Amino acid sequence: MTAGDFIGVYPGLLAPERCREITERFDASGLATAGRVGGGVLPELKHSRDIQLNQHADWLAVEKELNTAMFRALLAYAREYPYALIAPLLLQRQLPDGTVTRYGHDDIRALDDRALAELLRAVFRPGPVNLQRYEADEGGYPYWHSEHYPRDEDSLHRVLLWTVYLNDGFGAGETEFVHQNRKIAPRAGSFLIAPAGFTHTHRGNRPTGGAKYIGTSWILFQRAETLYGRR
Question: Sorted alphabetically, which Pfam families does this protein's record hold (predicted)?
Answer without folding.
Answer: 2OG-FeII_Oxy_3
